[in-house]
Amino acid sequence: MRTSFRFLTSCCLVLASTSLCFAEGRTVARVFWQDDTDATVRYGDLKRSAEGWSIQPTPITDFPKLDIDAQSLVQMRSDDGLLLIGVRDDANGELGSGWVAVESGAEEEPHGDHSHWRLNNSPSVLHVNIGVDQGNPAHVYQYGKSFVLANDAKNGFTITSASALRSSESAPDAAKFYDGGNGHITLAVIEDQVAYSTWIARDGDDSGRVDVVGLGDNEGKKYSIQCPSGGLHGATANSGKVFLAPSDGVCWVDADLECDDAPETVDVHYLSLGKDDDDAPLRTGAFENLDQRVVFTAGKGENAKLCWIDASSDSPSIESLPIELSGDESLTTPLAIKSRGGKSLILLFRENRNAPETDELLVIDVDANRDGNWEDAALTHTVDIGRNQIQGHGGHHQALQLPSRRHLLVSNPADGTLSLISLSDWTVQETFSVEGQPARMAAFGE
């Protein structure tokens, strides 16, 4: 009789524990997002329970207070449970710019061929490096384990990493500055051995200039190459090549990992993107990578298209898929992802600053038959989303594939919401009110 009572008691405790677990929800990911209304970062644990999805917006209590009339957050990158967030001002860096490093509170627990993330701690600021000598970064990149900040006002760039940030007692000790590039700088870094840093000049001797800067064992080496047109904005690396975005088309070079080529021997290859209705050359402004392909957009209105280059080819060429746009619509930089089922997908936002209620998420399946050839690329889904709030360079929708690769989060800046979208059927599972103006996002989890 006593044994039966103990058994029943144990069963009740298990059921109670299970019910409590379902009520509280299982944490799927810890999500971070920038709020452009007050230039801060918030987070929330995305949970799923029997009642549905939930997320509770929470401030990072020790995040530095910025002057929202003159300072803003720029790009945000993550690695090994750590976030690096760029800070820019409206005074060419003279008011205060730099970066903030944030511990996510997420810890990776390896299990042989996979790992789990434990979310036992609250996020906290690890380092703050904001001052008048930080060069006003506009772009923050991640190449391998390296974070790279473009210090526009200092005509150079800074490199750090999660391990360097954690092992350094002070922010200045955690990062190293390199001269290279000028004005509004974009960067490609290859194997921590060499960086390609662009000059924004449209005219003159420095139009089209790219500084090739040695890193690591190559530190101290430096030379410059020239693209046939200026206004460079966009750089990336893929398959041993560097791709650059001048005002006309795309240029590429073989990556010089020893940083010892004679500049006059470097072949700068040019690929045309065509011309618009006014006979002006088409250009792009940012690249994404998906496996061995470089992905980007070009053109407006009837000339708008999604483009890609097979970087592994000995003779790279541009392929494209037309994207229909009205005169008031524009495309965002692509997000390239692999679904949990292995699909290669390119996601774009079709935005209208004059009628933001018509904004859509476009889904392009670039390899439907999975033969590795993107000739069957096609627009397969359009998803209605919330509204943009485009002002200057900000206010665009942002998308984030969650770590499980089953869902996508979309920020709707004008609505103060985040939308959770299924990657299996492209339905909106839930839209969360987070207030403010949510922008760039990052996530950690299973």
Automatic annotation (TrEMBL):
Keywords attached to this entry: Signal
Keyword Signal (UniProt): yes
Domain of life: Bacteria
Signal sequence annotation: 1-23
Name by which UniProt lists this protein: Uncharacterized protein
Organism for this UniProt entry: Allorhodopirellula solitaria
